[in-house]
Amino acid sequence: MNILFEDNHIIVLNKAAGDLVQGDKTGDEPLSEQLKRYLAEKYNKPGNVFVGVVHRLDRPVSGCVIFARTTKALTRLNTMLQNREIEKTYWAIVCGRPQETEGTLVHYMLKNEKQNKSYAYETEKKHSKKAVLHYTVLNAGENYTLLEIKLETGRHHQIRCQLAKLGCPIKGDLKYGAPRSNEDGGISLHARSIQFKHPVIKELISFNAPVPDDKLWRSFVK
User: Fold this and answer.
1) E-strand spans in 69-159?
2) Which residue out of 58, 184, 213, 214 is catalytically annotated?
3) What pLDDT does residue 16 have?
4) What φ, ψ does residue 63 adopt, rounded to 5°?
5) What are 36-51's pLDDT values in tens digits?
6) Average pLDDT of 163-178?
7) Distances from the Cα of 56 to the Cα of 46, 48, 81, angstroms
8) DSSP label at 209?
9) d(C-alpha 42, C-alpha 47), whole Å
10) Which pLDDT belongs to residue 45?
């Protein structure tokens, strides 16, 4: 585990691609359980240790993720998340290059539960939800482009789905049209930074998660 910050109220991790934030049907041990074990050992705590999941990152995605160490912190962070008071910035390495160096994508998204996949449409459909994101080109190579992304809405697989609709699927994201997988089985989407008011101390805090240690990320982020 790569811990970016820890105090009595919260823990911020730089999640690796492939790590589970919260338990699912695979039965693999999630980070929430690993953190409970870590805290029990570090502070010699008998009995149950509380770790609250504030938000999730898809399993193949890396980067900043917050956990709460108290129910008070969890409740306050959940409210802040609902009120969009937690500011997240994502970086993505995509196949190809968008026509514009910056832009706003607006789509109407539908989730297919059976496929665990979302579809983006230009016009509103029955049961669809509006999805808005802003992107900026940070760097471009011959085959791939590094984008910075900020979300206005939080839909299922939103970044993955909207960038694929733009014609620039995220590198390694076979589900959304990338031609080949990444070696680590993850996708090149990284929750680069997170900024919010500490739920107890009330000070503004921010964290940057170092990008994955691979050749392409290193070439883009010198």
Assistant:
1) 87-95, 102-112, 117-121, 129-140, 144-151
2) 58
3) 96
4) 120, -165
5) 999 999 988 888 899 9
6) 97
7) 27, 22, 11
8) P
9) 14
10) 83
**Mean pLDDT over the full length of the chain:** 95
Rounded Cα–Cα distance for residues 41 and 45 (Å):
7
Candidates 137, 160, 152; CA nearest to 57 is: 160
Classified as helix, coil or strand, 193 is strand
Retrieve residue 70's tokens. 């108290």
Helix, strand or coil, per DSSP, at residue 153 = coil
pLDDT for 222: 79
- State the Cα angle at 107 between 84 and 101, rounded to 5°: 85
38 three-state secondary structure: helix
Q: Which CATH class is domain 3-220?
A: alpha beta
As a dihedral over the C-alpha atoms of residue 37, residue 40, residue 41, residue 42, rounded to 10 degrees, the angle is 120
Residues forming beta bridges with residue 104, ordered by sequence position = 134
What is the pTM (predicted TM-score) of this model? 0.94
Length of the chain: 222
pLDDT at 22: 86
Measured CA to CA, the distance from residue 73 to residue 79 in angstroms comes to 10
Give the domain ranges of the chain.
3-220
Q: Where do the H-state alpha helices sit in the chain? A: 31-42, 71-82, 158-165, 215-220
Q: Is 58 a catalytic residue?
A: yes
Greater confidence (24 vs 64) lies with 64
* Alpha-carbon gap, residue 75 to 106, rounded angstroms: 31
Q: What is the mean pLDDT of residues 81-92?
A: 95
As a whole number, mean pLDDT of residues 197-213 equals 96
